[in-house]
Input
Amino acid sequence: MRVNIVNKGGQANIRLLIKHPMETGMRKDKASGKVIPAHFIKSLVVEHNGQQVIHAKCGVAVSKDPFFFFKVKNVAAGDSFKIKWEDNTGKSETKEEKIA
Amino acid sequence: MGIDVKRRLMLKGSMAAGLATIAATAGLLSPRIVLAAWPQAAFEAKSFDTALSALLGSSSTAKSGDIKIKAPTIAENGAVVNVLVQTSMPDVESMSILVAKNGNPLAISVDMAKSADSFIKTRVKLGQTSKVYGVVKAGGKLFSSDRVVKVTVGGCGG
Output
């Protein structure tokens, strides 16, 4: 997961890019003809200084290698952000970052 | 003696209630980052109305000019369509993006705390030319706005 947080005058601009297949469960493997099982990010949480500010719930219609852009107000230099996603297979990734 | 027995029962009862409260509080306080409720019914719903009802409890939304949706008029590739939803309404609780003609219309729903700006931008898949809805829940009410995106190549299925 690539996390880019910019402090723009007290507002954090958070851009996230996650490597994930986001399989819908409706696509077929062309060679074997078998359905490729669904594999997608279900949930994405952004915490600002330990407080949950954003909780995104995603379905299969979010594009492959998802990109998200959120904005959080009332931030200051040194604040910490924690970003976590989890997919339907239980796989997850967490990143923490302090802003300047 | 009758009173005494009742008193015991009362004490027992209130203790049980107390424990239940503690358990409930612990549940509430446990970090919400443990991803609890993923609204399965809403994401598996096959129509715009059922998806909204399952997600937000109602499918009736008021059209609002205060919801800005930015999306391409023509998307060459339906698999990757940039969508931005933004509003200046106060007390925004959640913002969602739905693609009316997708098999499962609900694409993403974002719960927001007060300090989150009412803005989301992401990329979604469109199976075919469709209306893309931005639905905002603010102050307990639902508002929506939509935009048509023409798709030349579908983004669902192989």
Observations:
- The beta strands of chain A are 2-8, 11-17, 41-48, 51-58, 67-72, 80-87, 92-98.
- DSSP finds no helices and seven strands in chain A.
- The radius of gyration of chain A is 16 Å.
- Chain A has a mean pLDDT of 96.
